[in-house]
Write a structure and sequence with these properties.
The complex is a heterodimer of chains A (about 550) and B (about 325). Chain A has about 550 residues and is of the alpha+beta class. Chain A has 18 helices and 23 strands. In chain A, the strands form six sheets. In chain A, strands 11, 12, 13, 14, 18, 19, 20 and 21 form an eight-stranded mixed sheet that branches. In chain A, a hairpin with a 2-residue loop joins strand 6 and strand 7. Chain A starts with a helix and ends with a strand. Chain B has about 325 residues and is mainly α. Chain B contains 13 helices and no strands. In chain B, helix 1 runs antiparallel to helix 13, helix 5 packs antiparallel against helix 10 and helix 7 packs across helix 8. The radius of gyration of chain B is 24 Å and the shape is globular. The termini of chain B are close together. The chains are: A alpha+beta (about 550), B mainly alpha (about 325). The interface between A and B is large, with 70 and 61 residues.
Chain lengths: ~550, ~325
């Protein structure tokens, strides 16, 4: 079924391109008026995205397509700017941090109103964080509060008051963390919800869950309508405390891969964010009414090695496999140039990144000779059958890959051939995504390599993904990477509150990761936001998603 | 007749029980953990919270215990809470089922109304140009995948001619009510209904044609003709009624299909139907949702069979309900 669904997309392009071909050269002349301006709802800005499930509460949303509603309606004490740096938002200023680095005290801005009309105060902050620690909380965001004092006691019902967040006076709150950790700051940007509107009894969150689409925050937009599997609608908050958005009405319409670009060209939608398929860009190119902005993804796709596997344990084998894979050949076919390679598990959008870092890192460009040399050094000798052996054991990679994914379909033949040339056998075990997650996160054995992609969070903290203490069932260190040097750097980083020093440590860590090669970073692809030319001043970026960028956008409704 | 229906309904209880057992076993043996699917990749969650969530979701019980708990709830009409939506399953699926239903009812009714006369004519005028045309085009229709056809009509009627909206069920942002709302939905229905119609039309035409051919060969038709009856009366009164028998059976089998949705069609037309819901529930291991939907379809299939049998008895006097 999934295969079929995936097939629809390329096929549809074939169709739509073929149909569009006759009029593309003259398109600019034919489309004298912008079709979006003739639309009955031309005053609304319509964004086309994949389907949102409709869980729009900040404590419960589960998909990336529910996130825009959450972000436009709700706000936190802190927020991140275009460079990913934390800045005060509902708070007067950055928090005052205690000597031991464990307590953060905030002054809250006065006079900010929720959409219900209630004024924001310390009770709402305490409420919003306590909700996440509730014994009956069954959402995904416990990591926001589980490092706070008293979480364990409160969430198991042993205590009736959550000590992690305290009200000092009506406009002052204090957060108490168990340990002094640099990423703690990232927990302070969680959305603040009005305590009266979402009230519930401790241990029973049912009343909150019934308000999945009844939203009241402090944000620039008010939530006005949700039609399941069709669209949701937001209207500008006239009483917004900050810079009021220009666009008064925003509609997020759910579109399908098969026809989304056509809808943009027809003016049915105004913005199609985060497009990755080069074919779609080509299609939009000739329309004459479509502009674009491009930026890199905040994350990467990868092949991760199981570094506890007897063969993959050897860093030389991992380096050899990195050198021995022609990543650029794959990028050229799959992304048609709309991607770059990185040589460590990093996003270059983080404030910790600096171009000077590149010169300190090994570039694993395709070099089969070097790869063979490394394998020889590691003791893997070529046998008569063309494969390498060591102590009678064949050099073989057991790859758990994802079923029915076009990326895998294109990567597989390149990878098999490249590594066969080195004398490496590849055994592929395709499975669906959920089974793969189970395998690499929970079972953690029966594979020597797997592929997935990741998007980085707001704070550049690599610990949970790479520290050996997270190599546990359910832990995020899926490479099962246990490297003393790496652990040392991460231990230093986690308590470093000085941003300049943190940046240095982060770079040191990246260089070490680059050398140890626990994974092959395959690609960081370019995202393109396509939008109707009637939209002005719309500037999304890697760390500035469309729903942040539309606040500054203007809409032309007449020619 | 009433006794017959009652007996058949009683038989359905053990059948449903067995189906539920098999389904439950199959759903639970899907690889992968629903918690993983829900929590997602890269989200930090402590082992304790994971354990607590498993406990809340009842995933720590043994399979028989889980089944008994589920069956008990099911028996009183409680389908549980959807993992994805955090809402009772019943509330989630109700609107989606009706959306699929209106699409399918429209499509199937049209298909029946069109295919019956065509089937009759092609049978009566066997090997004529008309017959050959329909033979070829229904073969093409049976072979052509619906998504291919859907894309074709989208590119023609929505992209090129701009006659109908490309997808969706209502115009976003247009707060229509009453008649205006109905018209808006109707406008959005035209293309998907056309695909549903044409998808079943091809097979139905062949079906009616064969049934009709079978009947026309019968001795009593020859007798009717030799009595000097008007050809129209022979065909429509004598032959057609008998040809209807297999067609009526077919209607029974279409009942479950009326409520079921097509994942592919709903994806292409962004139609808020049930087909896509079942697919995403399976992918996210939303057990309560998968079970509820599958049990619903199983029940509909059983009811459809029963209705086919009843219909059979009504149109064919030879079949006695006993």
């Amino acid at each position: 079924m999934k295969k079929l669904l995936k097939m629809i997309f390329p096929l549809s392009l074939l169709f739509l391109v073929a149909c569009g071909e006759t009029n593309t050269p003259q398109a600019q002349n034919i489309q004298k008026t912008n079709p979006a301006i003739k639309r009955s709802n031309k005053d609304a800005l319509i964004i086309g995205t994949a389907e949102a499930a409709g869980n729009f509460l900040p404590v419960y949303y589960a998909t990336a397509y529910d996130a825009p509603a959450v972000a436009l309606v709700f706000e936190g004490l802190l927020t991140t700017d275009k460079n990913g740096k934390f800045i005060p938002w509902l708070a007067e200023d950055m928090p005052e941090i205690s000597e031991d680095g464990k307590s953060y005290t905030f002054k809250i801005k006065k006079g900010i109103l929720f959409h219900t009309g209630k004024e924001l105060n310390a009770d709402d902050v305490v409420f919003s964080y306590t909700l996440l620690a509730d014994p009956s909380y069954d959402g995904r965001f416990t990591s926001t509060v589980n490092n706070m004092v008293g979480y364990d006691e409160y969430s198991t019902g042993k205590e009736t008051i959550f000590r992690g967040v305290e009200k000092l006076d009506d406009y002052t709150v204090r957060f108490n963390f168990k340990e002094n950790q640099a990423p703690n700051i990232a927990k302070l940007s969680a959305a603040i919800m009005p305590s009266d509107y979402y009230s519930y009894e401790r241990g029973n969150l049912t009343p909150v869950k019934t308000k999945m689409q009844d939203l009241s925050g402090t944000g620039p937009y008010k939530f006005s309508k949700f039609v399941p599997r069709q669209y949701f609608e937001l209207v500008a908050n006239e009483n917004y405390w900050g810079k009021k958005p220009e666009v008064k009405k925003v509609i997020v319409k759910f579109v399908t891969d098969a026809t989304d670009v056509q809808e943009l060209i027809k003016g049915d939608i105004d913005i199609l964010p985060d497009v990755i398929e080069p074919e779609k860009l080509e299609l939009a190119e000739g329309a004459g009414i479509v502009d674009k902005v491009q930026y890199l993804r905040h994350g990467y796709g990868y092949l991760k090695f199981n570094t506890q596997d007897p063969i993959m344990k050897d860093v030389k084998v991992r380096q050899a496999l990195s050198y021995g894979l022609d990543r650029n050949a794959f990028l050229e076919i799959f992304f048609k140039g709309l991607a770059i390679t990185v040589d460590a598990p990093i996003s270059k959008a983080f404030w910790t990144y600096d171009p000077s870092l590149d010169s300190k890192m090994t570039v694993y460009d395709y070099n089969p000779q070097k790869a063979k040399d490394l394998l020889e050094e590691a003791g893997w000798k070529l046998g008569n059958d063309g494969f390498r052996y060591k102590d009678g054991k064949k050099l073989s990679v057991n790859w758990s890959s994802i079923k029915d994914l076009r990326l895998v379909d294109i990567l597989t033949p390149i990878l098999i051939q490249n590594w066969k040339d080195l004398g490496v056998e590849v055994i592929i075990q395709p499975m669906d995504f959920n089974s793969l997650m189970e395998k690499v996160y929970v079972e953690r054995k029966g594979f020597s390599m797997f592929n997935m992609a990741t998007s980085e969070s707001t704070f550049p903290d690599p610990s949970t993904q790479w520290h050996s203490k997270y190599d546990i069932p359910g832990g995020n260190n899926t490479c099962q990477f246990r490297d003393v040097e790496n652990d040392e750097i991460l231990d230093k980083m986690i308590t470093e509150l000085n941003t300049e020093k943190y940046k240095e440590l982060w770079q040191e860590w990246a260089v070490n990761m680059n050398k140890k090669a626990p994974m092959i970073p395959l690609y960081t692809n370019t995202y393109t936001s396509l939008f109707n030319t009637r939209i002005k001043n719309f500037k999304p970026d890697t760390l500035w998603p469309w729903y942040a960028a539309i606040i500054d956008a203007k809409l032309e409704v007449e020619e | 007749m009433i006794k017959f229906i009652f007996k058949r309904l009683l038989y359905m209880i053990p059948v449903l029980f067995i189906i539920s057992l098999v389904l439950f076993g199959m759903v639970k043996s899907m690889p992968g953990d629903p918690l993983n699917a829900y929590v997602g990749q890269g989200v930090e969650i402590t082992a304790e919270k994971r354990e607590q969530l498993r406990e809340m979701l009842g995933l720590n019980d043994s399979l028989p215990v889980q089944y008994v708990k589920w069956a008990k709830r099911m028996a009183v009409g409680d389908f549980g809470e959807s993992l994805t939506y955090k809402k009772p399953v019943k509330e989630v699926i109700r609107p989606f089922i009706w959306n699929s239903f209106i699409l399918n009812v429209g499509g199937f009714l049209l298909a029946f109304f069109i295919s019956i006369p065509i089937g009759i004519i092609t049978a009566v005028k066997k090997y004529s140009l008309f017959d050959n045309f329909w033979t070829v085009s229904s073969l093409v229709g049976v072979c052509m995948p619906s998504f291919f056809f859907a894309l074709m009509i989208i590119s023609l009627f929505a992209v090129k001619l701009s006659l109908f909206p490309m997808n969706g069920m209502i115009t976003p942002g247009k707060d229509a009510h009453g008649l205006a709302y109905a018209l808006d939905v109707l406008k959005h229905m035209v293309l998907p209904v056309t695909v549903v119609t044409l998808g079943s039309l091809a097979a139905l035409v062949r079906y009616v044609r064969n049934a009709m051919l079978e009947v026309i060969k019968q001795d009593y038709i020859r007798t009717a003709r030799s009595k000097g009856l008007n050809e129209k009366i022979v065909i429509y009164k004598h032959a057609f009624r008998n040809a209807l028998i297999p067609v009526v059976t077919l209607i029974g089998f279409y009942i479950p299909a009326l409520f079921g949705g097509s994942t592919i069609l709903e994806t292409i037309f962004v139609w808020p139907g049930i087909g896509k819901e079942l697919y995403s529930a399976v992918m996210s291991r939303d057990y309560n949702m998968v079970m509820a939907l599958n049990m619903f379809f199983a029940l509909l299939t059983l009811l459809g069979n029963l209705m086919a049998d009843i219909g059979y008895a009504l149109v064919d006097p030879r079949v006695k309900a006993e």
